[in-house]
């Protein structure tokens, strides 16, 4: 047995509205605790000021819970990883400041993590793990990217959204339909009970970039027209509307992914980010894999939406390369991948 000291990482995620902390031992997740913020439901979206305050309240209990669940002692922690960006500035500042204070108090190094890179590396939080290179469709509330993943820390963005993100398309449509925020999971739930009988147009965007704002507008006009003749149209057709919206969002995503497969010749494909929890997208990826004989990777639900385990996995690979940062580090709201 080797008596080499294990690498025990504490990781922090606070970029949007979830406060999360995780403990990893030699790259293996021991705990992954998340405090969700229910308050945003009241406002139909994330209110930055409310999110920052909730992070401030949640961060210490969430870290304590992660340490306790992992069954380790705080003194055993080798380094701390944290989300530096992209995200909401006030939310990021809570996590970054906490990480700085913790690192200083415990005299351990700090590792900054890009949230979008972490969504991709969430695939290495559990088995089966993809082999390089693979294409990852990262779809969240703030981002939509097709990424060519050459290695843990070597990624190239091949396409991105020119307006709304895929998650925003779900959430904004949900708002029009009168659903609570975040609407993605609810649209997914109702879509299962309906059929995609309403046809919304697919935007014509060059290359591997995406656009979702036109879809939102066409849904809005379609509903306005229908509601004129039947004020109960949404209530009576909610399941079919949700199935139709989801079907179009998924086909926009999958068609671009097919294009990326054609262009790169890569035969391993993955999805990541909050929208990768969507059952329509998960099924479509599996079908595409079968159709084109590709290897497909779909994360466990707990690693789709924002979580600190994915921050820890990324921090682990950066730790191995000794990529540390100093106390002068500041959050970056628009951090590029
Ligand atoms: O990755 P994430 O937790 O946070 C960001 O980094 O943005 O993603 C949140 C997004 C929200 O837009 C939410 O509606 C969407 O993921 N989402 C879903 C589902 N679960 C979460 N969208 C569609 N279907 C789902 N099942
Ligand atoms: Zn995210």
Describe the structure.
Helix 4 (166-177) packs parallel to helix 6. The longest helix is centred in the last third of the chain and has 32 residues, at 233-264. A hairpin with a 2-residue loop joins strand 7 (144-151) and strand 8. It is globular, with a radius of gyration of 20 Å. The mean pLDDT is 96. With 337 residues, it is an alpha/beta fold. Helices cover 43% and strands 19% of the residues. It has 2 domains: 8-120 and 306-320, ATPase, nucleotide binding domain (Nucleotidyltransferase, domain 5, 2-Layer Sandwich), CATH 3.30.420.40; 130-298, ATPase, nucleotide binding domain (Nucleotidyltransferase, domain 5, 2-Layer Sandwich), CATH 3.30.420. The strands form 2 sheets. The chain has a 5-stranded mixed beta sheet with strand order 3-2-1-4-5, sandwiched between helices. It binds 5'-O-[(R)-(carboxyoxy)(hydroxy)phosphoryl]adenosine and zinc ion. 5'-O-[(R)-(carboxyoxy)(hydroxy)phosphoryl]adenosine binds next to helix 4 and helix 5.
Features:
alpha/beta; binds 5'-O-[(R)-(carboxyoxy)(hydroxy)phosphoryl]adenosine; single chain; binds zinc ion; globular; Nucleotidyltransferase, domain 5; 337 residues
* Small-molecule components bound: 5'-O-[(R)-(carboxyoxy)(hydroxy)phosphoryl]adenosine, zinc ion
Helical coverage, percent range? 40-55%
Shape: globular
Could you spell the SSE succession in H and E letters? EEEHEHEHEEEHHHHEHEH
Spatial order of the strands forming the largest sheet: 3-2-1-4-5
Number of strands: 10
Distance between the termini: 39 Å
The domain count comes to 2
CATH class bucket of the largest domain: Alpha Beta
CATH topology type of the largest domain? Nucleotidyltransferase, domain 5
Q: For this entry, what is the oligomeric state of its chains?
A: single chain
């Amino acid at each position: 047995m080797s008596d080499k000291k294990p690498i025990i990482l504490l990781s922090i995620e606070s970029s949007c509205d979830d406060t999360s902390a995780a403990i990893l031992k030699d790259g293996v997740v021991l705990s992954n605790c998340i405090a969700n913020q229910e308050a945003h439901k009241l406002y139909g979206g994330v209110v930055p000021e409310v999110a920052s305050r909730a992070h401030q309240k949640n961060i210490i209990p969430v870290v304590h819970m992660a340490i306790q669940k992992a069954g380790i002692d705080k003194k055993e922690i080798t380094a701390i990883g944290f989300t530096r960006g992209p995200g909401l500035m006030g939310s990021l500042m809570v996590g970054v400041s906490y990480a700085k204070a913790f690192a200083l108090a415990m005299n351990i190094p700090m590792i900054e993590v890009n949230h979008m890179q972490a969504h991709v590396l969430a695939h290495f939080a559990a088995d089966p793990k993809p082999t390089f290179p693979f294409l990852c469709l990262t779809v969240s509330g703030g981002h939509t990217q097709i990424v060519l993943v050459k290695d843990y820390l070597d990624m190239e963005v091949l396409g991105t959204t020119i307006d709304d993100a895929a998650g925003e398309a779900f959430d904004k449509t949900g708002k029009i339909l009168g659903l609570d925020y975040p609407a993605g999971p609810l649209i997914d739930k109702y879509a299962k009970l309906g059929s995609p009988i309403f046809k919304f147009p697919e935007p014509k965007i060059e290359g591997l970039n995406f656009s979702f704002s036109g879809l939102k507008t066409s849904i809005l006009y379609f509903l306005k027209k229908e509601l004129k003749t039947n004020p109960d149209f949404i209530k009576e057709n909610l399941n079919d509307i949700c199935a139709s919206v989801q079907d179009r969002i998924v086909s926009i995503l999958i068609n671009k992914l097919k294009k990326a497969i054609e262009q790169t010749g890569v035969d391993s494909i993955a999805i990541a980010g909050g929208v990768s929890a969507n059952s329509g997208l998960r099924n479509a990826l599996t079908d595409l894999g079968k159709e084109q004989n590709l290897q497909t990777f779909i994360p466990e639900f707990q690693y789709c939406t924002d979580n600190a385990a994915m921050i820890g996995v990324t921090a682990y690979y950066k730790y191995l390369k000794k990529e540390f940062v100093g106390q002068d580090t500041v959050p970056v709201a628009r951090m590029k991948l």
